[in-house]
Amino acid sequence: KMAQHVNVNSLYDRQVRLWGHESQNKLIKSKPFIIGNNLVAEDVIKNLLLSGVRDILIFNESRKEGDFNGIFFCNNSLLDLKEKFIDFNPLANPTVITLSEISQEDWNCITSVCITD
């Protein structure tokens, strides 16, 4: 696992050169909310994690095994998903959540919403 203190400049060097430090920091500090358990949602999650997003809320009302059946997270239980996500970004803090579990603080911090069907 990666050390807690990471040099963002070296970790995301290509991205920083493309869109600059300020934009990369905004991306890292963002908190997207992903609704959908399908290949599109999976690809969005993967790309967000690879780009440096750390906090992702993933909506899953049923929280049952087999909900995420795709390429990267195929047939995984929800308990295994966090480890899979962290493989893409060791600094990630993804949360699989139901609507009833989302707090007012979560709603206030969400920076974008992606709904897939």
TrEMBL record:
It comes from the Eukaryota. InterPro entries: Ubiquitin-activating_enz. GO terms for molecular function: ubiquitin-like modifier activating enzyme activity. This is SUMO-activating enzyme subunit aos-1 (Trinotate prediction).
